[in-house]
Amino acid sequence: QVQLVESGGGLVQPGGSLRLSCVTSGFTFNTYTMGWYRQAPGKEREWVAILPRNSKTPNYADFVTGRFTISKDTHTRTVYLQMNNMKPEDTAVYYCHAGGGSYHYTNKKWEYEYWGQGTQVTVSS
Length: 125
Known about the structure:
By secondary structure, the chain is mainly β. The protein has no helices and eleven strands.
């Protein structure tokens, strides 16, 4: 059974840091593109950081560039999102994502796709 189990969310003050973890199982981790997405109240889900399956270079959304870092440990099947210098607008539910097989840019869908349950991140003083 495919599982993506997230942890690390919580309340943090502006300028503070959090590290999210996503422990996975049930799929071939090394052949999947891993990523983090988020969804704030009243807004659509947006991508935050992507670690492509065939690249060592992560991709970051403009609003987190220089502040967030995505990484993974292939032995433990874990994906991380280090979040520094956090801002109130970072408040959202953060989701871990795995995409495999073929990707369709027009549909923005993967042949195989899995999501974590989401973890709440709140940035407030």
